Amino acid sequence: MTGPARGTPGPTRTLNLDGFRFPLGTETLHLSWQPRERRPGTLNLKSCELQHPWSDQLVRGELAALPLAETIAYPVQDRALDALGAYHGLDSDHVLLTAGSDNGIGLVVDALVRPAGRLLLQEPAFEAWYHYAELRRVRVTRVPGLTGAPPTADPAPLLAALRDAPGPAVAAVTNPGSPSGLLYPPRTMRGFAETARDLGHLLVIDEAYGDFVHTSHAPLVAEFPNVVVVHSYSKAFALAGLRVAALLVHPALREHLGRFRPENAVGAPGVALLERLAPQRERWREIWRDVRAVQREFTDRVLSTHPEWRGLRPGANFATFWSPDPATADAARDHLAAHRVRIRSLSDLPGLRGCFRVSLADRPAMERVARLLDAVTDRPRPSHDVPAAPGKTAPHGTRPK
Q1: Whole-number pLDDT of residue 8
Q2: Cα–Cα distance between 202 and 225 in angstroms, integer?
Q3: C-beta of residue 183 within 8 angstroms of C-beta of residue 177
Q4: What's 265's DSSP letter?
Q5: For 101-121, what is the mean pLDDT?
Q6: Is 82 helix (H, G, I), strand (E, B) or coil?
Q7: Element housing 363 (H / E)
Q8: What does the pLDDT look like over 44-60, one tens digit per residue?
């Protein structure tokens, strides 16, 4: 008996390897690949790694306590999965480890989006969604997620896209928003899940920064079989260097996703540390509370000098600012770069014109950054107040002009 017929190959191009020619796919032609660079002496406030002295102490202690066998032997995940299931309030058969959220998103695109053939992507979104969709040649329907200036989160376009999709699709939404820092309330997320279920769509929720703002979508996973959650321990547990995340899914869907063997990319030290760190939830909550305090202090300090700016709430382990002058975002980035501090201008992203994001470090570092931002000024403009969105109060940290 013969096996299943192979699919028709896609377009190819011939690559010349010093005279040796070989056909390769064309799907990567429009994609970039830029390995991370070392920048000695530069304060990185662009990548949103958790930088806090208490998390450094906690992870350092657990790393030092790791037995050699748990770093050099092939990892067995059962105890770590039990700990993570308890952490999320789910049975362990709802948890599938991946090598960071980037790898998890790639798995979702491979295993779920590609067969469905369509991705409804609420923007702005993590770059990995665009990258893997391009690699797999799947159609992406870009859905606005923000409206106004300063921007606010708008659920209406995604609900409309779910209703208008011609067949089963995968819809992806980030909550809290990255890089905006804006947050949908639980009733809105439940509305997304219900609408997607009733219309036959899968809903993927990227909650990479959820722990910092007391937000978990695990209860939706327990209730709705069509909900998949991407959860990053790289962010929440200060393990960016170990690249660990999970997909929280219905057990039958986990079985399907598991056949793509994502566990082979998760190393033993990451598995062992998750087993130790996940049960220390109260300690983590103490750290995240202080991170939020640093964020509020930094936001208030910056807005005291720039009352015309807005801080987008609630943020996460970063602060996002909006200026009525669109040029200010790039000016802030460039001014800080001249002083060896990296931040991110967001003006090129949908709905975030005039915004820039600063991730958080310790208090002395953030005071230094605030002082540097004091020197960033908006261009002269007609004198008028920036109105708040109708029916809404001004965002956290706003000062009257």
Answers
A1: 54
A2: 9
A3: yes
A4: G
A5: 96
A6: helix
A7: helix 363-373
A8: 999 999 999 999 999 99
